[in-house]
Hints:
This protein is an alpha+beta fold. It is built from three helices and five strands.
Amino acid sequence: MLVSISRAPAESFAADSIDDSGADGIVDATEKGGEGLWAGSQMALVTGFQTNVNSRIVFAGGIGLFSDEYARKELPSGTPSGNSQLARDIAAWIFLETLTLHIDSVELHRVNQTVAPEMYTTDDQIVIPRISLHTTAGPRYGSLTAASVTCSWSLRCSIPTSV
């Protein structure tokens, strides 16, 4: 799963910053309506990636984003820029300290039954009358409600190596 953490402004575009060798390609792409051009808010400056086993990695436009110079940068008004908080938030996300959903317990059974069987098959229709969750998102993101959680289930099988 890809998570867009910070997108570029609409007037942005990507190019080789060392020389003008790619300039003709940008002009050509612009004339074609932007096809093949990395431009605008479709471009992510910082993107997170999470695997199905909850490993996380972040791709950033440059290491400078995490430098002391950027962390201390102020806005023209003299207020802090927020770069320091962004770096802390990214680190917390990478190390699973925030935005994780934990299943504490689940009750489920087949449709028209009330007791969970010992095993399920792929054709079983199930009902989940109760699921207990908690999150590390904190109060900033609000509380969990049934309407705010989407679940995806997969059947995992183990096959004995010897019979």
